[in-house]
Request: fold
Amino acid sequence: MKLIFCPKCQDVVNLLTVLRRCRCTSSWGAYHDDVRAYYGGEAIPIGFENPSLIQAIRDRPKTNWGSNFEAFVVPFDCPTFRQVGEHGQDPWACPCPKKKKEGD
Reply:
């Protein structure tokens, strides 16, 4: 699971396939597909190790503290989670040329 943390407002945002922003709008990001995502602004990318999160949910006690799960800060150089410029353009989107109209 890919998320972003905003150091300005301390919001944590779960990414979707549509662009999402933190409360103060300084950080943003989105999934391109099931694996690849991008982020920008002030965002710091973080992740949850899905299997450990699922196991912690399964082991959830009725009282007291629950189980820990693995979370991590994504490194600067990550092929599946890329930082992009201020315009928030999907780095994997096809820059397809425009089709010419008849008569052009």
